[in-house]
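Issue 218. Parser rejects a valid record. Input:
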Amino acid sequence: MNGAGVWLFGAGGHAKVVIDCAQSAGIPLLGVFDDDPSLLDTTLCGHRVLGGQKEAASMLTDHPGAGFVIAIAQNDLRASLAACLPGAAAPALVHAWSMVERSVSLGGGTVVFPGAVINADTRIGHHVIVDTSASIDHDCVLGDFVHIGPGARICSGVRLGAGTWVGPGCVIAPGVKVGASCVLGAGALVLESISSGTRMESIPAHRL
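Output the parser choked on:
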């Protein structure tokens, strides 16, 4: 797959770090797509934006063996785009400055940002984001389209349902099960299992 390269869908700020991950992993970047017409023919980190979903789908036909990484931070948008680009079997992108233990399983389209740590026997689904300096301990299971925010701490044996968003600095205690499509606010401390669709807010900072 490294020789075939990858296409990127998404041309915002998040995509800049995904491009860095691809370059760090030695995976050729073939081009960038985005549905925003104002971005057509602009460049992102030296790569030209080639079009939207229609043009992206045609690339899969014309370049067999090359897949898409969806470089969009919002979980629901990644899921909908993955459904619109069937057969886009992209590799996982793992930055050289991260640490992923050999027994870890990473689904296609998943991106591991700089400074992240993923420990033994953890299984991570497709199109997951493990953001900058996040850590995931051993024997965790993350569903598809999960986003682990910068600096979040996922302790051992945690289960995260598909589409769940874990905010920056969030801590999830060992063995906790979190359902699908949950939103855990920045800095939240999750000590007990929660059902799908739950929203948990952190304690915001306030002026003294």
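Fixed in the parser; the record now loads. The longest strand covers residues 29-33.
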